[in-house]
Amino acid sequence: MDPLEIVQSTGDPAFATDEEGRVVIWNKEAERLLGYAAVRALGKPCHEVLCGRDVFGNRFCDADCNLAKMVQRDEPIHRFEMDFRRASGEVVRAAVSVLCVRGPRRSQFTLIHLLQRVDRSSTEVLPVEPGVGITSTATIRPDRPPLTAREIEVLRTLALGSNTREIADMLSISVATVRTHIQNILEKLDVHSQVQAVAIALRDRLI
Q1: What's the whole-model pTM score?
Q2: In contact, 155 and 201? CB cutoff 8 Å
Q3: Which are the contacts of 174, defined by CB distance < 8 A and separation ≥ 6?
Q4: Which residues does residue 17 pair with via DSSP β-bridges, in sequence order?
Q5: Which of 146, 151, 166, 190 is nearest to 100 (CA)?
Q6: Which residue in 28, 35, 43, 110 has a CA-CA distance of 20 to 30 Å to 148?
Q7: What are the beta bridge partners of residue 147?
Q8: pLDDT per residue over 137-153, tens digit each?
């Protein structure tokens, strides 16, 4: 999966960090939501740009990134909410979905953060700015059945950056069966790549 393709193709604010926690990709929607132009964010430590805190006001982002630790332990990262500091100093809350894309070595990875703005006084998801909406179209084709429990498991492992062989080993199924599940997922979500399937699954809380 290509991190740049995921970040640039999603309609939501998104950015990516490397295994050192440096911002390596920053899309236009992230610029609108967070107020930082890409040139101000790229190459900088993520925690210095975002100053992220949990919903209780405790510091979440620092140089010793908890998300990176979870990836190193092969733990799934579930969707969560966090407060970010915009360039203006204003605090904005967003629901965060994280996708891990592995590099040639297990120690190398890119973390893609997909954001959806949330009203801090409720759980309502808001547009990034007036006129800039969060994509919310249905992802399951009306003439197709819903994803099965096993297909959702496969999607979750894809989101962790696992390849076909690793998924087969984790789920105790054959590589051929994994490929069949992936093909079914692509057809049901009406997409052409695993990248698109994972991005949609994260966006629409399918995983």
Answers
A1: 0.68
A2: yes
A3: 168
A4: 23, 111
A5: 166
A6: 110
A7: none
A8: 334 455 567 899 999 99
Query: HEC profile for 134-189?
Result: CCCCCCCCCCCCCCCHHHHHHHHHHHCCCCHHHHHHHHCCCHHHHHHHHHHHHHHH
Query: Would residue 131 count as lying in a domain?
Result: no
Show the domain range for 160: 149-203
Q: Rounded to an integer, what distance in angstroms lies between the CA atom of residue 197 and that of residue 195?
A: 5
Instruction: Indicate whether 138 belongs to any domain.
Output: no
The enclosing domain of 177 has a CATH number of 1.10.10.10
**Cα separation values, 39 from 25, 63, 90, 126, 128, Å:** 10, 21, 20, 26, 20
Lowest mean pLDDT across 112-116, 176-180, 197-201:
197-201
- The CATH number for 40's domain is 3.30.450.20
Whether residue 180 is contained in a domain is answered as yes
Amino acid at 110: T
CB 98 within 8 A of CB 113: yes
